[in-house]
Amino acid sequence: MDKTTIIGLLLVALVVVGGQYLEGGSLAMIFQVTAAVIVLGGTLGAVCLSFPPAHLLVACRSLSQIFFEPKDEANPLIAQITEFAYRSRREGILSLERELDNLPDDFFRRTLQLVVDGLEPETIRDIMEIELRQLRDSGSVSARVFESAGGYAPTMGILGAVFGLIQVMNYLTEPSKLGPGIAVAFVATVYGVGSANLLFLPIAHKLQLRHQRRLLYKELVLEGVLGVSAGIHPRLIEERLIGLLAGWPSKTRRPFSTASLFVDHTPADLQVEQTLPAGTANPEPGDYATPNVTQN
After folding, report:
1. Above pLDDT 90, what percent of the chain?
2. Whole-angstrom Cα distance, residue 156 to residue 44?
3. CB within 8 A of 130, min separation 6: which ones?
């Protein structure tokens, strides 16, 4: 559960209702069915004119994303890719084939499958970059839908206010009714500006962040798997992936060195021994002789 979303919604409700109460106004005055119909109905109609049904359906489905933190954390991914890199150096790239069914992410699974199939890293990059480009172009549709709603709503609020003022003109001969009538007319403006800046635009911004997070995850997968395919040292792969996280919050970045998880991955048939010259009691770093490498 994304706590900031819940806190934000509660603060919005508290500010609107509490502000009206502290000003001594009636809460009933800010709940006007006619104003809500004009603003929300007009905004919905404008959005429907702007986007095809498929985009609107995607936007509705993605609305739940603002309430839940994404599960695709970078830390476990970096650790897993580093583990694959060590294993491929030790057992060969084909040893990763048995891991394909255990990968929950389809992009990760297909990229690793291309590596296991023996394709060149450049070819794999060309294939998977096509999907990444499509995601960059179309993946933020949901954010654009709500951003458009945030642009239309204030205009609909002004439209509702104008309609209300037109009705108030009928009471020019009755001054006692002008004040309440004007107040009711401007409720539509409150609905339009409030819904845009307190709901639609913040939702669009959070959905855009979710989209960028998904893209980052897939870029980590692509760069990491390509590093494994090219035979790059696991530590270099790890540092490269860490570099991709430089601009993200600390919760997303790796807070520890995953290399400590794989210290036992030195091949068993390659032993490196460091020997000291005879009579060296307190060795210094330079006292060690050249390592003797023996093959068992």
Report:
1. 41
2. 10
3. none
Residue burial 14-46, b: 16+ Cβ < 10 Å; e: rest:
eeeeeebeeeeeeeeebebeebeebbbebbeeb
CA distance 230 to 122: 10
**Cα-to-chain-centroid distance, residue 141:** 14
∠ CA 265-217-257, rounded to 5°: 35
Model pLDDT for residues 112-125, shown as the tens digit of each residue = 999 999 899 999 99
Distance separating alpha carbons of residues 138 and 132, to the nearest angstrom: 10
Domain borders along the chain are 3-69+139-208, 74-135+213-262
Q: pTM here?
A: 0.75
**Structure letter (DSSP) for residue 197:** I
The whole-number average pLDDT for the span 191-220 is 93
**Residue 263 identity (one-letter amino acid):** V
Cβ atoms < 10 Å from Cβ of 66: 22
Closest CA to 210 of 70, 77, 71, 108: 70
Angle between helix axes 234-244 and 201-230 (nearest 10 degrees) is 160
